[in-house]
Specification:
Radius of gyration: 27 Å
Structural class: alpha/beta
Number of strands: 16
Mean pLDDT: 86
Helix content: 40-55%
Number of helices: 18
Shape: elongated
Largest sheet: 8 strands, mixed
Strand content: 15-25%
Length: 477
Amino acid sequence: MRIVQTFWSAGYDPLENSFGWSRPEYNLMSWTLSCLSLRKYYDEVALYTDIQGKRVLIDMLHLPYTEVHVVYDAMLCLPQHWAYAKIKTYSMQTKPFLHVDGDVFLTQPIPEGIISAPLVAQNREIGTMYYKYMMDRILQEPAIKLPQYIEDGLKEESISSHNMGLFGGSDLQFIHQYCQEVIRFMDDNKMNDSRYSQSFIDCNVFFEQVIFAVLSDFHKREVASIMGRAICDEGYTKQEFCNFSNFGNDKLLHLLGGHKRNPQIINSFERFMLTHYPNHVKRIFESINPKNKFNSLACGLAPINNIIYNVLPGFERFIVKKMSSAATVNVDVMLQEGILKVLTSPLTDEMEECDFYVKCTTGLSVFEVPMNISENNKDALRKELRCECNFPLSHIAIYPSLRQDRLDVVPLDSTSFRTLSYVRNTIIRVSELKKWIIMDICHHSRNVPEPFRRFAYQNIKYLINSGLLLVNKQFNY
């Protein structure tokens, strides 16, 4: 089966624009995983793109497409009509194909009986008021003219739609007819002419998904479903479509819509990529940051807003100073440590039985929370730092993140602070560090109650899981 994908940049730089993701690197990780997952099962995977897409995906990231067609330019259509590039790709196909979006990841091959069907889509959608509102916006625009059968379809209680994360088939005549309907809609209604108000209406779902569904219903064409069932338009749950811990057991993952900006999903995605494709992630970061340095000028604190600056005098000056020192941290080091954190985090439960060492993460700095801070302000800090309400906050640790233009922030109690101070600039066995913590809190190491031993061990695990301590059997860098 011929697999095709479409990357249209709309004139934006993929190294700087996130294209709906929370950050550009996640968009590039998505295209990387999508391409690699397709190449695992299919020998023919073609990319239809523009100069920017070829520059980044092919020339810089070296993704293993078997064909690359530079057929689009920045002026293909208005940027808000991004799905129009996909329609153009559909229309160019001359043999049976399956088009796969760049946020879809196959975890197993699609059954031959489905992929070879005359028409195939990811799944039928059950339209709710979410789609109804979108379609009413189109119907209420007097300048937009639609064929009667389309108007009738939009007036149904449940809007007809197919999710086109995967779409194609062998009935090229009907697919080309559908493409012509979309192109006619765009041309007749001047949807790509910014002088007309209707051109600013978000109608990607309409012209890609709804027109196909209404047209196939009108002509009584059966559409095979890869998912095998209809899904509500707001029913794409993160558990079913974004669960990287279950990768390989589901048919596919599809990080559509708001899932691209969900921190929990993004963290899971990043961990998956670092674990399975570290060299590709390294290439992405090297492409985005060719000087291979932490970007202090663009630095931010992702989990924090102005509250922390308002209640902690001097913290902003501290951050500005530490950003300058963070600029000397090499991204290669951050990448190696980021991979190490992912690969060794499951090992924390066996540290006591094995000979593990720990060291501080590169670029670590600590800010002391003033003793005289009010309880109200301390409560505000705990809430902002996502601590438990009774967390004995004494210090705040920061370190350069693998996401090169931000600092990660970790709340500390006094024991964690003293532990970090002891480990600073050294490499120490976990067993020795545990003994030191016990001595620190008990002032002796004889007949130590078990709760104190567990506390010491949990303290080490907290620092490891927070990214402040690195754990390994040996350190070679």
